Amino acid sequence: MKFALLLLGLWALDIGHRSLHAASPADLFRDGTTAYRSSDYSTAIKAFRQSANLQPASGTLQDLGLAEWHRGHAGAAILSWEQSLWLEPFNTAARGNLRYARKVAQLEGPELTWYEVVSTWLPANWWAWIAGISFWSTVAMVMLPGILRQPKAAWHQAVAALGLTVFLLSIPAHVGVHTRARIGFVQQKDTPLRLTPTGEAQFVTRLAAGEPARLERQRGNYVLIRTSRSAGWVERDQFALICLRP
Amino acid sequence: MFPWSFLPGVLILTAPAQPTSVPPQQDPLMSLMLSQPKVEITTNVTAVASFDPPVVSPGEQTIYRVTFNALEETIDWPKKLNAPSELQTEPGAHGQIIPMLGAVQVPYTSFNTRVRASTTGDFTMPEFKVQAYGSEVTVPAAELKVISTPPSPPSPILHLAIEFAETNLFVGQPTRVRAILPGSAGVFSQGLPPVQFTGQGVLVDQAASSQMVTVTSHDGMNMPSYTFQTVLTPIEAGNLSVFAQCFTGNRFTGSLVITGPAMIPAPPPPFTLLESAPVSLTVRPLPKEGVLPGFTGGIGIFRLEPPKLGTNELVVGEPVKLAVAVRCDANVARLVSPNPPRAREWQILDSTPGGGITQSTPTDTVSTFQYTLVPLTDEIRETPAIPFSYFDPVRGNYVDLTIPPVPVTVHAGEIPADFSTLVKTNGAFRDEDEPVLSGLAASSGWTGTLLPLQTSPWFPVVQVIPAGAFLGLWIWDRRRRYFEQHPDVLLRRRARRALHREWPALRRAARDKDAPRFAGAAVSAMRVACAPHYPAEPRALVGSDIVQVLGSNGQSEVVRRFFTVSDAAHFAATRTDTSGLLTLQPELEKVLQQLESRL
């Protein structure tokens, strides 16, 4: 009986390990790459998306955008490349792809304020760590010499001043990250921009896939967005934010 | 007199011109149309149906051919024929020719159907009607005999064969294709259309076609064969099916035996639509990855000849021609020239934007690109490199074949006004690269979260940790500094703590009825409780010190008794009387409480 239970346990462990292994982001990334190379873009999209859901990564999102682009989904491709840049602003390939897509589709990028531009210099989440580390470094340099019964040296004050400066400089970038998190992209071609959040609403205009907009608020199945030209309501599944999971 | 003699002539010259009857000029296009022979479309349309060959074995393919003397566009041919169930039918070639017969052109249209019989027997394709020129035309019945061993035909059957140089191709890769009709040197009439290649997703370059009659060996016999070859380019990925079709001209069919003088009238021309067996092409798309700059669709093995510049001594503002010959072993009918790069120092124009000038030789094809270069500054030392690349179908990758720069010497000169603007424009665009789609990322790259950290619930919690640590440090430091300034507070606190530790030992001794231990614990407790008042080491205190702290509250006897017993236990040679000591526990606890209250 014990032997049978042991075998059962080992079998369950093996099955669990296999399922875990099959669903790992690295395996899914590899599957997506293979499918992409054989021009099976639908399978590639599925694999890359699952991988990005499990572990958002710059390269995965870049490849997801390529597969979406080859399937003719300009909105999803632009969103993926923007997300790739959100994670890694130094990804020149994703930046080039965005330029290419916007040139081909005749689209504009989102209009950014100066503090949003500052926030694009580094990965969005780096600013939070920079602010935290610089602030607590300043606090430490102010407090610790007294606690440790050490005379305040010049370098203590220099580090404190530097930390405070970095902290203060990171505040605009923080605000930029916060406001950029409200930027999204139209996902479907010829998405109607409605005057009111109802199915029978009058169309203000139609938006192209990949057009940037800022989320203002939500109501039911509709979201109020503001583009560079106008504002209006679109259905929730026709618009996706940068900072949401793919 | 003299001037008047000219008057009639002057009057004649000045008089208005009389209207003359000039014959109207005929429109040359109309004249051309009228000069064309008439197309015969008024006679009764008839249909001829037959199987070719009429006798086959089971499973062998035969062609059910129906020929009309009408234009193809006017015939409403059914999509499916009502054939016997034993016959499997598949639509084949169809086409039309309009040959000259006498003074008129007569259209002939044929519809082929590939037929295979599953069993032996005599089968009849029944008579049916189709629409031609808006009226019904009866297609007569046709007989097919299927026997296990059909007799060999009296004359060789014309069989059209198709040969591809390659059948595994990439989209856009040209390949040479040949259609061969053995023993048919005399069957083609002048003016008949050449062989057609039919199939979805292919492009046939008629400009690259050629035809010849060669002697080929078939079944051990050398016979002349008509060969038509051209270049075919797949434009769609997947498995493509291609077959050849052509019309034959005048010929006699069957054997002809003439005995004695006779005159044979010429039979109507049996323009027969032949078709080959379909050939399947496997076409793959070009890989998206690794596309190099300057790729214009060239697929094959290319070689670059040294670029030829009109002259190496240039003057600013004066154009010069650059010719580049590209040799290819593939049958490239047209090779698009690469876009010249945008350079600040040059104005470059592509003289052959539609494609290089192509010349075919027996061994390869040569395309020549021509560019017109205008130097805009005398600081130039060489022409710009022009990116060019091709796809190698054998290795399956893109190969760089950039046109190399050519050394030049540029002399100063006047820049035309138009080019001055160009210099500024080129400068403005110098650093702007043309965006291209990247390849796949080799690895998943940087990982992270798409949600901003500030919005994550754990992030504030993480910030609480250093805040708590620093707050704790601060409180500890303040407490430490307070105790440094008020050491008596610390002594009293320690004494109180020590007294609390002594109390359990005291009670344990009382419970065990161990009077000496009880007395020792009581003395120790009193010393600990009184030590901060002097301050002194607790073991250095004596009973009077305790009594002094207690003051005159009547408990001095109890204190002395305990100290006496304790001192005797330590220093006396005889045993001390400890009877009744345990009964003093309530008084002792009262003393200790008094001492604790003073701490």
Distance between the terminal alpha carbons of chain A, to the nearest Å? 47 Å
Structure annotation, total helices of chain A: 9
Average pLDDT reading of chain B = 80
Q: Structural class of chain A, please?
A: alpha+beta
SSE pattern of chain A: HHHHHHHHHEEEEEEE
Q: Which regions of chain A are unreliable across 5 or more consecutive residues at pLDDT < 50? A: none
Based on DSSP secondary structure assignment, what is the total number of beta strands of chain A? 7
The chain-level mean pLDDT of chain A equals 89
Strand order within the widest beta sheet of chain A: 6-5-4-1-7
Provide the gyration radius of chain B in Å.
Answer: 58 Å
CATH architecture of the largest domain in chain A: Alpha Horseshoe
Low-confidence stretches of chain B: 1-18, 185-191, 250-269
Oligomer: heterodimer
